[in-house]
């Protein structure tokens, strides 16, 4: 038996397990790309309007740090890729990290790989299978994104470069995740460290891009996300950058394979740190235990929300100058001038902040299912801890954590915008705009809690529910869905603040629905068997 024996069977098994997740991820990324191009055509139909957008973008450090630079102000494709360069790369990287950790470290931690390894499966087959699935997924993503951008009306060569850029970034971070999965002993730790690397590389890229002509712009070349941008789709199409990605991914993969043979099954290269013999006074309850388990995730999400708020505040004062077409000016006039378009921009991004808060909640509730299937819930529930108290920890973290993160987003964006505009009232306006987003995020959390309480395996469908709500909000008007269908999304009932009049009635209804869903989910959890 060779070290790669059974790779084909494991690959087919992995694809069978991911038969729903992979098409959904790829579909969303392709639709995001195509819809962005369509909207850019309408707002910037001529060279003059695109040149003005590029000039204002490249002269705004906050925008450059967030999205990167526009390298060809006359190209519709280059302007369309302003956001897509970064968003597509991050989406591909996140998908690759999830795939590699899921089929390597997570399978080891659950005991699934030990069971499979007892058959005719080689030592390196699981890693090879995970990398094969990851590589084929990114190749598929690159091809379909290139086709989607081409169908949307962009040149074929630039579309191919954009697809390769995203797929290349995905492959690089998949290789990084493969190394991290060998270093750590737990899937949660491997995922956390991999996403921390993604965040660090994004920050390095942002610092490099936002630097002045005499600053350290070379930092962008130290980041895989920066490599993706340096493909410069529709603005030169630098194909040779792919060689950098292939070389880095190749070396990193070799390191991952060398680490596989140096560790025991179920263990990591880095030893687990032993905890104290006695728990600290603050770690003697179920809720405090959950806080200890999720505090790293909460901290990471909080930092991301603060950075998002600062970026939104920095961009807000330049929104009116970024639109130069006659169609866009007519749109601004209908909204009430530049102040109107700025408020509309902030209101739209606050909705997206609410969606991110809901995503945090889905992840937090997902820990309930992970602890239960990992058989770590039974020892706790065998003590004097009731099911209510045990399940209350993730629910409180999901609800209160999401609310605090939204508030921090509003306060940070308001503070930055107030400093730039000289209007101190913006702090309160944007804090209020963030707070009204809380009930919609809580409804999503309530749906996930109900799914966990009724049928635990439906917990992961919380991501599908969130995606459906997002698609209804983004694609509903484009697809001309009936109003009742668009009203199914809780985000459709959130007041569009700042800048409009609003009523508290929809918020109260959503709070009541969220409370009912959470209560029903916890009640159902009390009445069912564990792991059933």
TrEMBL record:
Swiss-Prot/TrEMBL keywords: Membrane, Transmembrane, Transmembrane helix
Regions crossing the membrane: 20-37, 82-101, 133-157, 163-183, 190-208, 239-260, 298-316, 344-366, 395-418, 430-454, 461-479, 507-525
The keyword Transmembrane belongs to this UniProt entry's keyword annotation: yes
Protein name: ABC transporter permease
Organism name: Actinomadura harenae
Taxonomic lineage: Bacteria, Bacillati, Actinomycetota, Actinomycetes, Streptosporangiales
């Amino acid at each position: 038996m060779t070290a790669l024996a059974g790779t084909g069977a494991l690959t087919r098994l992995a694809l069978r397990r991911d038969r729903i997740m992979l098409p959904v991820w790829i579909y969303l990324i392709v639709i995001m790309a195509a819809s962005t191009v369509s909207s850019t055509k309408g707002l910037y139909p001529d060279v003059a309007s695109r040149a003005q957008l590029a000039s204002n973008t490249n002269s705004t450090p906050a925008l450059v740090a967030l999205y990167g630079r526009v390298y060809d102000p006359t190209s519709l494709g280059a302007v369309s890729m302003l956001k897509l360069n970064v968003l597509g790369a991050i989406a591909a990287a996140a998908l690759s990290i999830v795939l590699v950790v899921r089929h390597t470290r997570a399978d080891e931690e659950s005991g699934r790989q030990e069971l499979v390894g007892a058959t005719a499966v080689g030592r390196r087959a699981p890693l090879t299978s995970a990398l094969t699935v990851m590589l084929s997924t990114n190749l598929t993503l690159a091809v379909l994104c290139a086709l989607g951008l081409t169908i949307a009306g962009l040149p074929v060569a630039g579309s191919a470069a954009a697809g390769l850029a995203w797929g290349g970034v995905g492959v690089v971070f998949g290789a990084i995740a493969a190394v991290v999965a060998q270093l750590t002993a737990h899937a949660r730790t491997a995922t956390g460290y991999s996403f921390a690397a993604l965040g660090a590389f994004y920050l390095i890229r942002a610092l490099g891009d936002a630097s002045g002509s005499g600053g350290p712009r070379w930092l962008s070349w130290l980041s895989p996300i920066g490599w993706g941008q340096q493909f410069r789709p529709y603005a030169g199409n630098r194909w040779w950058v792919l060689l950098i990605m292939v070389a880095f991914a190749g070396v990193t993969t070799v390191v991952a394979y060398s680490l596989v043979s140096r560790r025991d099954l179920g263990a990591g290269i880095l030893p687990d740190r032993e905890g104290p013999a006695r728990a600290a006074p603050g770690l003697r309850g179920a809720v405090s235990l959950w806080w200890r388990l999720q505090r790293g995730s909460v901290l990471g999400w909080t930092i991301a929300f603060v950075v998002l708020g600062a970026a939104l505040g920095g961009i807000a004062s330049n929104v009116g100058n970024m639109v130069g077409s006659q169609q866009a000016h007519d749109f601004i006039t209908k909204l009430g001038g530049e102040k109107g378009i700025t408020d509309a921009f902030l209101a739209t991004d606050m909705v997206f902040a609410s969606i991110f808060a809901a995503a945090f909640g889905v992840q937090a509730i997902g820990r309930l299912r992970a602890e239960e299937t990992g058989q770590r819930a039974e020892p706790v529930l065998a003590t004097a801890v009731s099911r209510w108290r045990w399940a209350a920890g993730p629910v409180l973290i999901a609800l209160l954590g999401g609310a605090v993160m939204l508030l921090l987003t509003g306060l940070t964006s308001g503070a930055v915008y107030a400093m730039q505009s000289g209007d101190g009232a913006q702090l309160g306006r944007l804090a209020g705009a963030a707070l009204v987003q809380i009930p919609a995020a809580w409804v999503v959390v309530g749906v996930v809690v109900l799914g966990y309480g009724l049928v635990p395996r439906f917990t992961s469908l919380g991501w599908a529910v969130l995606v459906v709500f997002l698609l209804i909000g983004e694609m509903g008007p484009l697809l001309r869905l009936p109003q009742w269908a668009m009203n199914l999304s809780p985000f459709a009932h959130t007041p569009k603040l700042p800048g409009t009049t609003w009523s508290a009635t929809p918020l109260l209804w959503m709070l009541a629905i969220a409370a009912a869903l959470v209560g029903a989910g916890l009640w159902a959890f009390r009445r069912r068997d564990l792991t059933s």
